[in-house]
Amino acid sequence: MREMPTETSSRRVSPPKQLSDNPVVRVLDDARAEVKVRARGAYPPGPQSFSFGRTLQAARDPLPLLLSLYEEYGPIFSARLLHHPVIFALGPEANHFITVAHPENFHWRESSFGDLIPLLGDGLLTIDDAYHDRAREIMMPAFHREQVSASVAAMTAEATPAIERLRPGQVVDVYAWMRGVAMRIAMRALLGLDPDEAGKGAAAAEHFERALGFYGTDFHLRLLRGPGSPFSKMTRSRAVLDEIVYGEIAQRRARPDPDKMDILSLLIGVRDEAGEGFADKEVRDQVMTLMFAGHDTSTSTLTFMMHELARHPDVLAKLCEEQDQVLGDDAPDIDRLEREMPYLEMVLDEVLRLYPPAWIGPRRAVRDFEFIGHSISRGAYVNYCSWASHRLPEVFPDPEAFIPERFSRERKAALPRGAYVPFGGGRRICIGKRFGQIEVKLVATMLLQRLRLDAMPGRVMTVRQMPTLSHRGGLEMRVLPRQ
Ligand code: HEM
Fold first, then answer.
1. What is the residue extent of each domain of the chain?
2. Å from CA of 99 to ligand 1 middle
3. Is 186 in the pocket of ligand 1 (CB under 6 A)?
């Protein structure tokens, strides 16, 4: 196996401190942190005793728990989950405070995002402050409109044959289907690999899925170490991925190709304002992070959209009418998807209100601060939660109902700031927002130009929330002709 590069670029900012991935060390650190937080002040009100039932509910079905604690305690409360108290801040004001007004109070790395470090390393999701800001500045051009527009070719190339393979009468697991499409799009658009090439694209896709599987396993299984454990399987797949990604980086550094528009190639070429670029490890960590952050999210969003459209024929009819008027049989392009299909946008917004895939925003307070009369000490775990915030009846009346009209231009503009945060907010708002939106819109549009997907009678949907919101056990639907 190839030796991994160790060089780093001459950075103006120091790299983040390494955290232990030993679960015992993490639990002890949490216990010490709780003592320090308590010494500086109380946690906000909420259930503080250890409760296995509460911990299990938080892991399996957190939404009712969070909404009932919000009812009882208001927009900020704390609850002991497993071994330590976690603060939750819900609603528009809390979301705005954490993401836009005072992001400097928080770190992502020392929150549960830190659990991703063994696979992702030091990518955008697991770094903070100046180190993060420099990386984000370097990466931004890769997500500008022109670049996403270039990725539309990869999206169309992958969606077309996948849709053509669907046959009327067939039952398809839409979640698994879209997962396959999204992974192939990611291989092409992010890594610039051919997803059918056995040694590279196909292997990278397979091992990325395997590595991701670790983050979908139950928390207690993730704590295990040693041969045969989910952790060791994840590290084995990581080694294969590393070999492929580092190999690609070396090849592109040796033979730069200005025509290559994939994001890996761009990240190798881009420079910050001081003229410095990413070192190999930085490129590797960032692309792995993009693959992670972009894969599940788009998959789940498309699946939830199909689920809701099957339940709301009136919405589907309106969507298809818009589609017919704007596109007819033409393939969708970024201009028309973004500018000429407002109802599609409203449907997508409503899907992301009800099911924001990245439903929780985990943080660690790095300084003491006040929020609506509560003093929070540094060291505390603080989460905002789009999923629960989007279900507050005082903000979104009749919150369980699927009503895309809530997101008409006027009504969306009238929402309180921080009310709607499916992509987070502020300077760390999702960097792949446009990429993800276009991917979901494009695949949904192409699918509905040819076919209909109908719900299976008697099938009840249950939502799973790790690592992102998705359908537990997939979503089987029947393929019908368009008519
Ligand atoms: C429907 C699709 C998507 C949704 C709903 C979504 C949602 C989010 C949310 C909520 C955050 C902020 C998390 C927080 O505040 O704790 C975030 C951040 C991020 N997302 Fe997305 N995302 C999507 C697609 C993508 C795609 C396609 C990519 C990459 C290709 C991506 C890359 C990232 C990255 C790197 C961050 C961290 C940004 C930073 O810290 O500067 N996302 N996303």
1. 23-481
2. 13
3. no
Kindly indicate the confidence band of residue 3, based on its pLDDT and cuts at 50, 70 and 90. Answer: very low
Taking the CA of residue 190 as reference, the ligand 1 atom at the shortest distance is 30
* Residue-wise pLDDT tens digits, 291-311: 999 889 999 999 999 999 999
Which residue has the least CA distance to atom 43 on ligand 1? 430
Tokens of 137: 């500045």
**Closest residue CA from atom 21 of ligand 1:** 430
Q: How much is the pLDDT for 271? A: 82
- Say yes or no: CB of residue 288 within 6 Å of ligand 1: no
Q: Which atom of ligand 1 is nearest to the CA of 360?
A: 16
Instruction: Look at 12 and 268; give whichever has higher pLDDT.
Output: 268
Ligand 1 site, residue 294, Cβ cutoff 6 A: yes
| Residue 142 near ligand 1, beta carbon < 6 Å | no
CA–centroid distance, 45 to ligand 1, in Å, is: 31
Greater confidence, 399 or 296? 399
Confidence band, pLDDT 50/70/90 cuts, at residue 328: very high
CATH 3.50.50.60 holds for 23-481: no
pLDDT tens-digit map of 62-92: 999 999 999 999 999 999 998 889 999 999 9
Question: pTM score, two decimals?
Answer: 0.94
Pocket test for ligand 1, best of 264, 430, 438, 465 (most atoms within 8 A of CB): 430
Is the pLDDT confidence value at 10 over 50? no
Q: Which residue has the CA at smallest separation from atom 17 of ligand 1?
A: 430
pLDDT confidence of 12, banded at 50, 70, 90? low
Q: What is the mean pLDDT of the chain?
A: 92
Ligand 1 contacts CB of residue 422 (under 6 A): yes
